[in-house]
Task: inverse folding
């Protein structure tokens, strides 16, 4: 039975050693940590908020909390990255609430601006189309896909970040991927041409 | 949730569910089911077809990485990071800590006199100043190991950090 994810072990948490050095102000550790996590934090926040400026403000706040937490973090509770993902999502949710964005499964209709069948797509255009399609997914579906596919968290880690069961995560992923297939059907043929 | 797993094996229903949720790459499949899934697809042309279809969406998702951080954000995040302690600040901090610990020990040894702690602080200051004055010219530049050396010199072990002296002041 796969139900609620078990608590994550921090025994092999790759961030713990860095946190000790960060608390001492070690610039190499700080830079290593930032290189490891800043892009992922912004990427996740951007996928949730669909706005780069807001995502960067969230990332800034996440890192302020990281710097504050570093000296007192107690290994054994959770992986530090899981905590960071949770903080990121919570800050995103706060912003969305403030903007009165609905956290349900409603999402805006696609504008009919997809490329025509004969229109070639360059890679950047394709990326834009895919990101646009992801942005049209309900928020929890796009979070699930971002965590599992883009950030390559395991199903257990992603479920823990989202504070849902693995079954619920699987359902979000399946629904999200089905919707993406529908949204991206016009681009599927173009993708096959890339790299050939 | 239906129980679509068979003992030790994988059903087509469960395999489809895995592919629909996690895509074509076995690295993204649940670790507990990965081996069985790979064995299943190796022996089922129908399962291989599902994988091929899912790979198309995977490739599209791979073609769209998430947004990256701007240089301005990177700069701001680094600006707000903890500052390295200077050697003098670290030594001063070490001295304060050691002085207070010595004063605590003296107050513990002679709790009956009201002047034990002030006198202890004075004596501790002299001891710390004496030690750092002598050792500063030729000991390691690593202030932390210097601190531990000092503890070891006076108390035999740095584990004095674990002592609870809160009741004796």
Result:
């Amino acid at each position: 039975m796969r139900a609620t994810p078990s608590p994550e072990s921090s025994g092999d948490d790759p961030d713990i050693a860095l946190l000790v050095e960060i608390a001492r102000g070690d610039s190499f550790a700080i830079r290593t940590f930032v290189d490891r996590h800043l892009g992922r934090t912004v990427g996740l926040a951007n996928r949730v908020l669909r706005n780069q400026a807001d995502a960067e403000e969230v990332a800034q706040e996440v890192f302020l909390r990281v710097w504050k937490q570093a000296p007192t973090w107690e290994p054994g509770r959770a992986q530090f990255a899981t905590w960071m993902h949770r903080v990121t999502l919570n800050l995103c949710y706060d912003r969305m609430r403030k903007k009165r964005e609905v956290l349900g499964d409603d999402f805006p209709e696609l504008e009919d601006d997809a490329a025509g069948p004969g229109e070639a797509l360059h890679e950047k255009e394709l990326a834009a189309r895919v990101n646009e399609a992801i942005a049209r997914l309900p928020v929890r579906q796009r979070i699930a896909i971002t965590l599992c596919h883009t950030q390559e968290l395991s199903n257990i880690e992603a479920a823990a970040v989202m504070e849902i069961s693995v079954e619920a995560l699987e359902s979000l992923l399946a629904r999200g991927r089905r919707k993406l297939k529908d949204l991206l059907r016009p681009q599927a043929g173009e993708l096959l041409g890339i790299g050939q | 949730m239906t129980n679509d797993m068979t003992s030790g094996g994988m059903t087509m229903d469960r395999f489809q569910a895995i592919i629909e949720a996690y895509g074509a790459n076995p690295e993204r499949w649940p670790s507990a089911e990965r081996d069985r899934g790979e064995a299943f697809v190796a022996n089922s042309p129908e399962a291989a077809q599902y994988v091929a279809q899912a790979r198309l969406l995977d490739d599209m998702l791979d073609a769209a990485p998430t947004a990256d951080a701007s240089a301005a954000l990177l700069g701001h995040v680094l600006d707000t990071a903890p500052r390295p302690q200077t050697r003098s600040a670290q030594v001063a901090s070490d001295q304060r800590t050691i002085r207070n610990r010595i004063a605590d020990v003296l107050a513990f040894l002679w709790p009956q006199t009201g002047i034990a702690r002030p006198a202890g602080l004075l004596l501790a200051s002299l001891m710390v100043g004496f030690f750092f004055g002598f050792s500063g010219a030729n000991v390691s530049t690593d202030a932390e190991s210097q601190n531990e050396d000092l503890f070891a010199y006076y108390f035999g072990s740095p584990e004095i950090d674990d002592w609870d002296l809160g009741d004796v002041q």
Summary: The radius of gyration of chain A is 19 Å.
